[in-house]
Amino acid sequence: EEQPIGIWGQRHLDYLKQYRKVTYTNLLTSGRLNTYLADIDRQAQERFERLIEGMKQAQGITERLKEENALEWVQYLNNIRACAREIVNEEIIFA
């Protein structure tokens, strides 16, 4: 059964094709590639969301800040998302 592969799964697929050719070939020929990528995608998305929530709490980024100063809130959130993206890439996508 084909499962949808999101951006995290696509990034990992590119990584496998470029740096882990044997693993990619084994997954492809065994028919497990799609399931494997869907699982990686799910894990990465869940980790990304947990990181964002944790960083928002740690830095005190609240809905009140969003109401009072939307531009500052967006700046903080963009920074948090970039940090979380780097962590997920390091821990899951390029590991």
Helical proportion?
over 70%
Number of helices: 5
- For the secondary structure, the number of strands is 0
Order of helices and strands: HHHHH
Description of the structure:
84% of the residues lie in helices and 0% in strands. It has one domain. With 95 residues, the protein is an all-alpha fold. The chain is built from five helices and no strands. Helix 1 packs across helix 3.
Write the layout of secondary structure elements.
Elements: H1 7-19, H2 21-30, H3 33-59, H4 63-68, H5 70-93
Give the tags.
single chain; 95 residues; mainly alpha
Quick structural gist:
84% of the residues lie in helices and 0% in strands.
